[in-house]
Specification:
This protein has helices spanning 8-12, 32-42, 44-53, 56-75, 81-120, 137-156. By secondary structure, the protein is mainly α. It folds into two domains: 8-75, no CATH class; 82-156. Helix 2 (32-42) packs across helix 3 (44-53), helix 2 packs across helix 4 (56-75) and helix 5 (81-120) runs antiparallel to helix 6. Bound molecules: zinc ion. Residues 5-106 form the LOB domain. This is LOB domain-containing protein. It comes from Rehmannia glutinosa.
């Protein structure tokens, strides 16, 4: 032993941790699980080759990605992180749908308010029989408009 303790990978692989060990900066001895999961999924020699091909400033990001992918693969051996990605994509499209419905509702309310402002303007010349303020027909018109907006969005997306 040369004073410093071996990194997590050298400890697991029971070898001497050299001064220029490619794993040492990213797999500290106090977090052995991090290397264990990456080693299990990718193999230490593959990880070593990948890290050596990368410039120093990209290695930390590569290690985070490898650790993330390895943990996802252990949790879900069939889909790995693709499972998480498709779950998140489903959430995004669900939320886009909800947003479209909310936007259609807002538009509907704005149209109703605009209609009320127009109708509420007193017009002395207008005969009483043409005043539709209390008519239920308005609701039907707005409902069909709302549905069209939602379907219109579906076709676009
Ligand atoms: Zn080492």
């Amino acid at each position: 032993m040369v004073g410093s303790s071996p990194c997590a990978s050298c400890k697991l692989l029971r070898r001497c941790c050299a001064k220029d060990c490619v794993f040492a900066p990213y797999f500290p001895a106090d977090d052995p699980h991090k290397f264990a999961v990456v080693h299990k999924v990718f193999g230490d020699s593959n990880v070593s080759k990948m890290l050596q091909k990368l410039p120093l400033h990209q290695r930390a990001d590569a290690v985070s990605s490898l650790v993330y992918e390895a943990i996802a693969r252990v949790r879900d051996p069939v889909y790995g992180c693709v499972g998480a990605i498709s779950h998140l994509q489903n959430q995004v499209s669900q939320l886009q749908m909800e947003l479209a419905v909310a936007q259609a509702d807002i538009l509907c309310i704005q149209m109703q308010q605009h209609h009320r402002q127009v109708v509420d303007k007193p017009n002395d010349d207008m005969p009483q029989s043409l005043d539709f303020t209390s008519s239920n027909d308005n609701i039907v018109v707005y409902d069909s408009f709302k549905n069209e907006s939602i379907y219109g969005y579906d076709l676009l997306s």
